[in-house]
Amino acid sequence: MMYQTNMLVFASETSCDETSICLMEDNKIIEHVIFSQEIHYNHGGVVPELASRSHLEKLQEITNKMFKKPNINPKKIDVFASTCGPGLIGSLLVGSTFTKSLSIGFNKPFFPVNHLEGHLLSTSFNNPIVYPHLVLLLTGGHTQMYLMHDENKVELLGESVDDAIGEAFDKTAKLIGLGYPGGAQIEELAKYGDENYFKLPKPLLNDPTFNFSFSGIKTHVNLLTKKSTIDDNFRKNISSSFQKTITEIIISKIEKVLKFLNNKNISLKSTSIVGGVANNYYIRRNLENLFEKKNIELYYPIKEMMSDNAAMIAWACIKNFTNKNADIFFKPDPRLKITL
After folding, report:
1. Residues of the chain predicted below pLDDT 50
2. pTM reported for the whole predicted model
3. What three-state secondary structure class fits 301?
4. How far apart are the C-alpha atoms of 210 and 44, rounded to whole Å?
């Protein structure tokens, strides 16, 4: 797939609790803004209605500020793109309606983008991907493994049947008295704990599929909190044990996938880890060790494309846009599937 050249794209991303816009030309980021909504911190998780309201307020503010910059002429924008799913329906409606309005106002096409496709293609922004390519998607809302035979053929191999990995981190953090978001706090505490102190369950470890399950670990942590004193030592040890268990589950599933592909005579050339949870250093280090032993190249997106962001949406638009699939009438879908 060759990306569109000499194309200036404005993109928005509002699938959950990050409000983000980006102006990209070819493979150069002109401007990129990511606003993380702090309004959810006191609620221990994302409140959909509050997220929608915050998107509506912030989108107008950051877009007006961007368009007033001396180096930016919004009339020169060729395409307007927005995340149209999956995600929170209210947030998707705000972002897509706002961006559609801009496209109508400037009389330019609107291109709907799948949030997951944005993540999958993000690594190709700064890396020469060799196919077939395995993608591990680790976010607050999704835990999935995809085999990219090429940029036009993508196969879902496995996904979480319940909680996503980021959700499991946040819920576990809440159970032991930490704030939201909890992933970074668990990672920090885990440095000082004994990762072998608690033996936590590994759901679906022996299941023949490549699917994940994390809710059972969260339930076990909940039981431990009810019969333990929740002090600093407990938090450090449970964080360390939780992080290790999560990582072991991921590695086990990857090894199972690699064996499956090998049996089908599919020689994996490279792999990538995308999504906000991929910023966890412990998980990254262990996965890097795994793929180094397997002699498989491991890639990451640039840092600002790692979590939910509009740059990956702009890049997906540039990679996929044709006038034929521009669609101002596309309805946001909270359960939108991969179409690559």
Report:
1. none
2. 0.94
3. coil
4. 30
